[in-house]
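Private note to self, pasted from the team thread so I don't lose it. Backbone tokens:
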């Protein structure tokens, strides 16, 4: 296995970069400078700037069909953009402090959004209407993810609570008190059977979706784990941390396979390519880094 830095973009934004998404040949970054940017994943050249938010953009997502890009901002708005040309399609005003982390449903019809109330709001992409509200017993929900099969939504809260919802039944399945501090990163395995979390308690954990049991605990970061991403092959995953490190982990052996130390500040976002052979990371140092992982 070869792990190496392939390309680096310095000053990719004017301020810190808090989120990154990657589908097909486009990488999208979201920054506290109130903009998002689309990049060509091969050349790492900027294609377009998505401007219009009034405050920092804290989360970005791309739907599976690569029709839409979604951004959420501290200005309490979710914006839907055209994946191909970056044009604005829809602007959703979600109310005060109710936009933080966002995630597309697998069919691209809905967006789940976490917020300060602790609720998860489901928005209709085509109409911009509110479809459902899932209530957690946690505080500010700072992370949210749809499962690839569309059956579940998982959230992480500032108080460390993980909530798992059954989308079809519209009910909460589990409340997991697995972390002692905020869960800022959350995602599912490709087969939707496991949830991966990253927390301020410096640990990443894997949970079985149905039983909510801990499958594995991954320790090695020396500060908050801010971001997580599972490789599409579900054999490895990546974490980004306030310790300025990006780590690659083996799910089966629970071992740290490699550590990248190129960032100069905390790493807020990591994302794999569709094939899982490359990884990108972003952080407060305004860098966009591309790695080979094959």
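Design output:
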């Amino acid at each position: 296995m070869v792990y190496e830095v392939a390309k680096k973009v310095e000053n990719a934004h004017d301020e810190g970069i808090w989120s990154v998404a990657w589908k097909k040949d486009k990488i999208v970054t979201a920054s506290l400078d109130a903009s998002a940017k689309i990049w060509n994943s091969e050349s790492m050249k900027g294609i377009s700037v998505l401007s219009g938010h009034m405050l920092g953009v804290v989360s970005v997502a791309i739907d599976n069909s690569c029709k839409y890009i979604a951004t959420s901002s501290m200005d309490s708005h979710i914006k839907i953009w055209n994946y191909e040309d970056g044009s604005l399609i829809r602007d959703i005003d979600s109310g005060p402090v109710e936009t933080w982390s966002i995630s597309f449903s697998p069919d691209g019809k809905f967006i789940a959004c976490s917020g300060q109330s602790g609720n998860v709001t489901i928005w209709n992409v085509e109409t911009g209407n509110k479809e459902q509200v899932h209530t957690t017993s946690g505080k500010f929900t700072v992370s949210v993810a749809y499962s690839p099969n569309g059956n579940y939504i998982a959230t992480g809260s500032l108080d460390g609570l993980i909530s798992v919802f059954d989308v079809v039944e519209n009910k909460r399945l589990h409340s997991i008190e697995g972390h002692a501090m905020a869960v800022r990163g959350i995602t599912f395995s490709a087969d939707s059977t496991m949830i991966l979390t990253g927390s301020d308690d410096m640990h990443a954990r894997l949970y079985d979706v149905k039983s909510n049991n801990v499958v594995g605990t991954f320790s090695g970061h020396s500060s908050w784990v801010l971001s997580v991403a599972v490789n599409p092959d579900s054999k490895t995953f990546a974490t980004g941390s306030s310790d300025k490190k990006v780590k690659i982990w083996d799910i089966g052996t629970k071992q740290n396979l490699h550590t990248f130390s190129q960032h100069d500040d905390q790493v807020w976002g990591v994302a794999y390519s569709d094939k899982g052979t490359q990884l990108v990371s972003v952080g407060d140092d305004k860098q966009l880094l591309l790695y080979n992982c094959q």
